[in-house]
UniProtKB/TrEMBL annotation:
Residues 16-107 form the Prepilin peptidase A24 N-terminal domain. The keyword Transferase does not apply. Keywords: Membrane, Transmembrane, Transmembrane helix. The chain crosses the membrane at residues 6-29, 89-113. InterPro entries: Prepilin_pept_A24_N (IPR010627), Prepilin_peptidase/N-MTase (IPR050882). GO terms for cellular component: plasma membrane. The keyword Cell cycle does not apply. GO terms for molecular function: aspartic-type endopeptidase activity. This is Prepilin peptidase.
């Protein structure tokens, strides 16, 4: 493979990593206030890892293939697979912006294509 191929593959890797980081940021943004101030339903086991991601309306557990950053929201047209409740566009927007941020940082730090593999 050429240097340019590696350059753009690493760009895509940074973009995908950033989108995954954005997805985790969504979890923290949603759950941390509930952990600090309480859920109001008496559930003491609430944490960043438990319960698994689920629809806040029908409580249907979100499958792994419905949890792919940005893509799943687009495929499901912004709705829960089970109850068809609308899912806010803030979630994929956060994922996309974080992914782009990671990719731009890479482009700024990597320099020209021909210097990428000389370090």
């Amino acid at each position: 493979m050429t240097e340019q191929t590696y350059y753009w593959l690493f760009f895509l890797l940074c973009l995908l990593t950033g989108m995954c980081a954005g997805s985790f940021m969504n979890v923290v943004i949603y759950r941390l206030p509930l952990m600090i101030f309480g859920t109001g339903d008496g559930d003491e086991r609430f944490s960043l890892a438990w319960p698994p991601s689920h629809c806040p309306v029908c409580h249907h557990r979100i499958r792994f293939y419905d949890n792919i950053p940005v893509m799943s929201w687009l495929v499901l047209r912004g709705k829960c697979r089970r109850c068809r409740t609308r899912i806010s566009a803030v979630y994929p927007l956060t994922e996309a912006i974080t992914g782009l941020w990671f990719a731009v940082v890479y482009l700024c730090l990597a320099g020209p294509v021909n210097t990428l593999l000389t370090i």
